[in-house]
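May I ask for an example protein's residues together with how it folds?

___
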Amino acid sequence: MLLSAAAALAPWPSFAAGVCTPRELSQRFAAGVAQKLDVPQNEVWIYAGLAEAELAGHPDGLLQPQYLLVVDSCPSIQTAFLFFRLLPGRFQLVGATPASTGSPLRPGCLETPCGVFPQASVSDAGRAMASRVYDFGTQRARRASGLGYGALHLQARAAVGRNRALLGTAHSDGRVLLPPSLVAFLDTYGVLDAQRTDRTTPEGDHMPFAGQYLVVIDSEREERPDWAIAS
């Protein structure tokens, strides 16, 4: 871990030519992703801490610097954060958007479970498109009615059609809904495609530190802050 961290900390020009750095990826996020949220730095630190607390119980596969998709399922927040995690406790925010997770009130729905979920499979279907579906396997999830648990096929996918209006609210069936432009961005840059070897950006750069994890947290906040209001 120390060797990988040392390499990541090296000055980027000397680290490798033609590398897409986290800072550059953040700039491309700002230019290419719609419905962005402007998260204050103090909130970034809070969410980095919440994500790290969730990761603490799942150390396997999380020793290397990598990108993480962190989603706050709290009904008052409903936000997706794309983080670069250099080391435990060392996070850099690439960007944030509204999201939608499982509603605790809708009959027949499941609550999106908290936890750390690796991609269960990687498919070429829908790649480089907003139709890409990120599959995180079958998970045990609480029924929205409060009557026991059920099996949820946990996915992160684009909110298309009428579902776009759900972003920023807890109204999905349990899957994580994201803005189509964010799904296309994640796929185009291979941010969560650690299992792939052909991670070259549209600009021709190499894309290091690709991850594979969805981290779902619940901040349990009662009020929605101004920065979390989707425009």
Observations:
- The beta strands are 66-72, 79-87, 90-98, 115-118, 134-142, 149-158, 176-178, 213-217.
- Helices lie at 2-9, 12-15, 22-32, 41-55, 180-188.
- The radius of gyration is 17 Å.
